[in-house]
What we know:
About 15% of the residues lie in helices and about 35% in strands. The protein contains four helices and 17 strands. The protein folds into two domains: about 10-75, 2-Layer Sandwich (Gyrase A, domain 2); about 85-214, Cyclophilin. A hairpin with a 3-residue loop joins strand 4 and strand 5 (about 50-55). By secondary structure, the protein is mainly beta.
Amino acid sequence: MNRPPIDTGAELRDVIVEPLGEFAVLVRNLMDPWRYTVALPAVTELVPARSDLGVYLDPAAPAVSSLQILKSLSRRAEGLSDSASIEIPVLYDGEDLPELEDRICQSVVSLHQTGEYTVQFIGFMPGFPYMTGLPDGLRGLPRRSTPRTRVPAGAVAIAEDTCGIYPAESPGGWWLLGRTPLKICDPRSDFFLFKPGDRVRFRAISPAEFEEFQ
Length: 214
């Protein structure tokens, strides 16, 4: 599989294609990889990451070249047709709220709810959504210098330019804002609330509402 940069216009000028195992390739240096499609019969699955797109190929199909993949690569102007709009209720009781408010001198809870978020990709653990759309006041915070050994399931957290939700208890180094009572992932039943391209808003709830949801 060739790896040269392809000059197909400003948007794809730095894009390269690399092998990813025997029957897959990695298209690198894309902006919003979830917006892209590859119109080739040999393609069986597309898996977006932060700036890369995994393209999985049918082993029984004729081989395709990197140039064929790039020529068939197109960006959906309006995103995915099956993208959902999801509202996430949050009990904003995160232990990092006081320190964050000292840092930014604003209400973290109010600011976080103004964001319009987009799920870019799923990673780290099954069902964990990486979402862009953090408001300016919350963007650019480095990860905590000392990660926690235990972050509860449902924790809503931020770091750098990303907001995420922990589907299960896990170690983690992001800033904790609160918790959602929603179950966002159950691999045993193949349930995943989020997919790339979904649009997300957050809404504050009270402790009593949190218990009702549960």
